[in-house]
Each structure stands twice: as C-alpha cells, then as structure tokens.
Amino acid sequence: MKYVLVTGGVVSGLGKGVTASSIGLILKACGLRVTSIKIDPYLNTDAGTMSPFEHGEVFVLDDGGEVDLDLGNYERFLDIKLTRDNNITTGKIYQSVIDKERRGDYLGKTVQVVPHITDAIQEWIERVAAIPVDGKEGPADVCVIELGGTIGDIESMPFIEALGQFSYRVGAGNFCLVHVSLVPVLNVVGEQKTKPTQHSVRGLRSQGLMPNILACRSTTELEEQVKDKLSQFCHVPFENIITLYDVSNIWHVPLLLRDQKAHEAILKVLDLKGVACEPALGEWTARAKFCDKLHEPVRIAMVGKYTGLSDSYLSVLKALLHASVACRRKLYIDWVPASDLEIATAQENPDAYRSAWSLLKGADGVLVPGGFGDRGVEGKILAAKYARENRKPYLGICLGMQTAVIEFARSVLGMQDANSTEFNAHTRNPCVIFMPEGSKTHMGGTMRLGSRRTYFQVKDCKSAKLYGNRSFVDERHRHRYEVNPEMVPLLEDAGLCFTGKDETGRRMEIVELPQHPYFIGVQFHPEFKSRPGKPSAVFLGLIAAASGQLDAWLKKGTAKPYAVSNGIPAIKPHINGTPTKLVNGPLDGIYYNGNGLHV
Ligand code: GLN
C-alpha cells in the first residue's frame, strides 16, 4: 500500500478536499485502485450531531456512518463507497484508546498521547486503507489521506506526530506528502507572494513532515520566478510545484493536475512509474468542458432552512448539477428561505415575503430538502401546496416528503391540524410519527441510518421508470420520523400513491401524485449516491420535468445518463431569458440567485 497525505497551510477553505479527491481521480485514471481517508481533528465522534450551518452537510454512507462532507467528494470523484471508519476523528481515536485502557490492555502502563494515541492513529490508517471500496477484492494500491484543518492547529498535533512516524515507518517510496497552500496576489502591485507558503512549509518541517509536492492555490498561474523562489525556500523540486488557479468548475481541477504533470511527480515519489499508465481522462475532460458550454437555464427553487451556506446542501446541489448536465441545462438555484414563505413574514418583513414567493413562482421546479426542527416547516408545507396545486415539478427529500404528506392531509383530507409529531406532539392527525426503534434520549447515531431497500409497489409510476424499472432500489437514509402507516389507506384513497415501501410494507419510502406532471417525495436521500456521469434517478426526473423533457426520458424506459461516447449533443438556443442578479457561487458551475447566500 502506498500513501498520499494531503495537508493544508495558511488558511482553511482552500479546496483541500477537492484537491485530494482530484489527486485520487488522476491516480485512478492512471490505472491504480484508490481509496481515501479523511482525518477531522475535532472531538466529536462523528459529524452526526454537528450543525450543517457551521460545518456544511452531514454526509451519510452506505453503512450508516454520518461523516464529513469531503467523503462525499471522494465518493463522487472516485465512484467508490467508503465506510464510517474512513473518517477518523479525535473523538473516535480517544474513545478506542480509552476503551482499551478500561479493558486492561495497557495494564500497568501510563497511557499517553505519544505513543498510545499516535500508535492508535497509525493502526487505524493501516487497517482502514486495506478495506476495498471499489467493489473489487483486496486492498487498493494507493490511499489518499486528507488531514483536516491547517498546519499549526493545536488539535491536529497528535495526527501530525503520528503521520511523521508513519511516513518513516512505511519508508521512502511509499509515502508522498502534498501540501496545499495559498499564494496571494497583492492588488496594488499584482505580485504573487510566497511568504505565507514559506511559513506554512516551515511549520510542517518543524513538526517532522517534509513536503514532496506543493499545490498552490492562486488566482492565476504561478510565474516562473515565483516557482523558483518557492522551490529554493521550501526545498521542493521546481517541477513538483503545481498551481491550482481558479477554474470555471471543479471538474477542471484534475485536469489542471494532469496538465502540470502532478501525477508524474506523485508516481515518481511513490515509485509507481513502471506500473501506472497515462491518465485516461477523456470522458471527464469532455464533461468538464461540456458543463462550461451549457447556457439554456433550468431554475430550481431550493426551499430550505440553511439558505445562508450552500455547503449545508452540498450533495443536493451536486445531484441537481449532475442531472442538469444530463438534461443539457445550466443550473440556476433560487434560494428560498422556507420561513419567508410563511404568513408571519408577510407582516414582519413584507419584502422578504414577496421576494420568497416570487422566486418560488418563477422557478421551473421546486426542491424541498431534508431537515430537522420546526423552523420553516410551515413554509415548506406552503411550497408543497403551491407545487401541487400549480402543477409545478416538485421533489421532496426526507422532511420534504413528510411535509408534502402533511400538506396533502390538510388540504385534501381536510385535517387542518395534520402534522408530524416532531413539530406538534399533540396533533389529532399525526400523519408523520416517531419510529418505534428510535431513541429519545441519545442523539448521536440513533436515527434510521444508511442503505435500506425500497420495493416498488407498482410498475407504472414515474419513480420506478426513472429507476430503470427495477423491482427495488437501495438508497441511504437518515431520519427518526416516518409516515404513519395507520393513515396510509386514507391518504391513498384520496389520491396519494405510495409507490415505494420497505420490505415490511409498513414503511413508506416513495410517494407520488400520479396526475401531477412530477410530484415525488422520497423518505431517503438519493443525493448521496448521485455521481457526475450517473445522475440520481429522481433528481433527473425533477430536472427533466422542469425543462420539458420528462416524457422523452420516461419513454427511453431506463433513464440513461448523458454519455460522452454518444457524442456531445448540440445545444439548443436559449429561450427562457437569463435570470437577473446572478452570482457565481463557490460551487462553480452552479449559479445562484436570491437571498442570503454568502459568496
Ligand atoms: N426530521 C425528520 C426525521 O427525523 C426528517 C429528517 C431528514 O430530513 N433527514 O424524520
């Protein structure tokens, strides 16, 4: 096993995760099998209890692991399935050491950070790196390890110490350190400044780690003399200094690495030159370029709670993007803070109310993502009502499905106080209830989590067709509440159709309105399994419906994703007119419009 460690310096938010995923992708393109590990030096055991508003979304794995969103980047870029142990946290390491201490494994010894914690970190890495994640047997060839945070953080010290020992232990030719740093350009003189990088490399060296490759984030390509200076001061060969300058969408990052021969530098350090082939990135390159050329818009209203931080819904946005590329549309996201749709806002802040409703009405499709807590729930119910009554394409995910069911019970069955017991414990019409197996006392890891099977109940429904007429589908879950099975007959008699259920038939997984152009709610989170060339079926359905292509997709029988080998399709002329006030957000390739997004 060979290891590539990716560290970050100067500031956080440099795109270390995307860089590490891109390194993995390019190595995979060279014919190697790649796995990855993300180290998060915080004390939480996992990301499950962390606020998406602070940390971005909680990504869910097949095995139910609730992990950092970077693992989503790895899964999407490398098309692999990771396990919960591929995300290491300080909490997990300490817990394992303390458990051992209680069992008596260290009997008689003083348990210390060095060597006990540092040993536990190294053992964890070696054990997890060997788990196959690409569906093949046996361990991968290379494991990309990303160390979260920046060099100098107090919390990452034990990890750096452990990784220093580890590099020594696995030996030269088996370990390559890529340090991602920032080269700022001072506006006044337009000069690329190397000092911050020099300082962070010095920090790295002082802790016993020597970088083999420098990946420098900068607005433009690094000048020759700047690279010379970095090479000299940081003791890194000139050809191992790579610039990651700003690109139009993140799919270009692996191409930047390839164009600057980063793979050759890494393969040389890892002694793999004889084994690897030239990177095969044909399809990837075509998709990155194709995405830049899209111009006919599709506008999706995202009715959520955390509209201030796009990372809170990262996988949903990626899934929308994958589907939009498949439908040859340029994706515009209209952020609609759910609570702004509520009647209370009409009095408190009429401008916000008007703007939220005009964004919702102007969109081609509506997406209500998952969520917890009662803020904005009434707004989400109103969004579902608007989409249902106005035949606007709607996709509700998890809470977005539950609110659609509540809305239907209120409006169509006339149950005015219909609700989820999550929001009103005393409702007379509980159409969404707490699941019997949940825990009311412990929050961490106690939801219905991970991959579960959904069986289609009828063949002739949109979801089954979009999923390629399979009899079942495995998708990832993260919820405590579910549709009340006692109320299902009533809801079905009134026209709501539960087209997907679990193996017992008592748990509702997919709901549809057959007479509506596209109205689907899913209890699971399909966004976690969407991939750049393989968009998620129900997202594809939403974008296809929102851009007038759904019938064509459904007629194809199976929803065949955009494939480059079929030739790049001609782009139709633009008809709808572009929205105003466009902001090119941090997720390149997606355009945002509307309230509250920090860019
Ligand atoms: N709060 C709801 C539940 O626990 C929905 C969860 C979600 O959207 N992920 O069931």
Automatic annotation (TrEMBL):
<keyword id="KW-0315">Glutamine amidotransferase</keyword>
<keyword id="KW-0436">Ligase</keyword>
<dbReference type="InterPro" id="IPR029062">
    <property type="entry name" value="Class_I_gatase-like"/>
</dbReference>
<dbReference type="Pfam" id="PF00117">
    <property type="entry name" value="GATase"/>
</dbReference>
<dbReference type="InterPro" id="IPR017456">
    <property type="entry name" value="CTP_synthase_N"/>
</dbReference>
<dbReference type="Pfam" id="PF06418">
    <property type="entry name" value="CTP_synth_N"/>
</dbReference>
<dbReference type="InterPro" id="IPR017926">
    <property type="entry name" value="GATASE"/>
</dbReference>
<feature type="domain" description="Glutamine amidotransferase">
    <location>
        <begin position="310"/>
        <end position="543"/>
    </location>
</feature>
<feature type="domain" description="CTP synthase N-terminal">
    <location>
        <begin position="2"/>
        <end position="272"/>
    </location>
</feature>
<keyword id="KW-0067">ATP-binding</keyword>
<dbReference type="InterPro" id="IPR004468">
    <property type="entry name" value="CTP_synthase"/>
</dbReference>
<dbReference type="InterPro" id="IPR027417">
    <property type="entry name" value="P-loop_NTPase"/>
</dbReference>
<comment type="similarity">
    <text>Belongs to the CTP synthase family.</text>
</comment>
<keyword id="KW-0547">Nucleotide-binding</keyword>
<dbReference type="InterPro" id="IPR033828">
    <property type="entry name" value="GATase1_CTP_Synthase"/>
</dbReference>
<comment type="function">
    <text>Catalyzes the ATP-dependent amination of UTP to CTP with either L-glutamine or ammonia as the source of nitrogen.</text>
</comment>
<keyword id="KW-0665">Pyrimidine biosynthesis</keyword>
<protein>
    <recommendedName>
        <fullName>CTP synthase</fullName>
        <ecNumber>6.3.4.2</ecNumber>
    </recommendedName>
</protein>
<comment type="pathway">
    <text>Pyrimidine metabolism; CTP biosynthesis via de novo pathway; CTP from UDP: step 2/2.</text>
</comment>
